[in-house]
Amino acid sequence: MIELQKIRDLFNNIDFEVKIEKFIVPNAESDITFKLNGEAIYADMRTEVRPNHVPIFLNRRDKPLLVAADYITPKSKETLKSNGVNYIDSYGNTYLNLEHLKMFVEKDNAKPVYNVYSEVFTRAGGQILFHLLQNPELINEKYERLAEISCVSLGSVSKTIKGLLKEGFTVKWDKDKRYQLIKREELLEKWVALLNEKILPANHLGQYTFTKNRFEIKEPNLEFETRWGGESGAAMLTDYLRPEKYTLFTNRPKQDLIKSYKLLPKEGGEISVYRPFWKLGSCKTNYEDHEIAAHPLLIYAELIYSGNQRNIETAKIIFDEYIKPNL
Q1: What pLDDT digit, counting tens, does each position of 122-151 carry?
Q2: Which Pfam families does the entry link to (predicted)?
Q3: Chain region(s) in the chain for CATH 1.10.10
């Protein structure tokens, strides 16, 4: 009944009267079922919805589905709407494409939901998680080593490890007081948002365009590290995607992007260039394109967050082949 009241509260925020009735469907996949103006609805209740959550809804067999949340990001709303998935948030932003009720309300005033302070889900914590998700055994590595490969301070490592234990993502599992990283899929989901919303913006070097050697840049100098991420990296790993946007991670100086790589700065250019947030050589990979493609975690996180259906499909391929075995 609490969930049904929450649904009623959400619909009270739109300037349109609807009738909501209790209606139970046995064995439903969704959180709650009810009738909206007499039509059976399956609803998934969330605190917030980000692009990496959208694939969950696209695969639901319950129809018609309503995604109900306190906050839904603009990109998530756009993707839900383009895929015909109904939604409503706490600000009255609504998309309904039902048999007897069609509605689209965009108030453009929704704000993110901020959780209580976390010592884990910070920018520094996200850089540490990048390595822990690659190799969970690193949870027992010396703090100095974790700080070095994550490019963060010793204090940040200490706070993050303590936070993981406090927030239930780490347990002590033997008499030697060794740690074990748990709930890794949940950690990955949270890290995807952290990467795209905090880590990448902080390391953004600018937008560029190709002049020549399109999509053929390799790093010839061991002093530097240059890797393709996003759609470009995914094309190398899967042969499933033809990239339209490119992501390049490099620790070369900005002037080298023009001199060595023949890239030109361009507002809105198709290449997003980022500074690596890991130590040179610390992200080991075991696939053919290890000298040119970024780590699969990075590629997956960008694709799944993009909201693009083709990218999401490619992200699932990468997840199954490269990421799931380590979770």
Answers
A1: 999 999 999 999 999 999 999 999 999 999
A2: AbiEi_2 (PF09952)
A3: 123-183
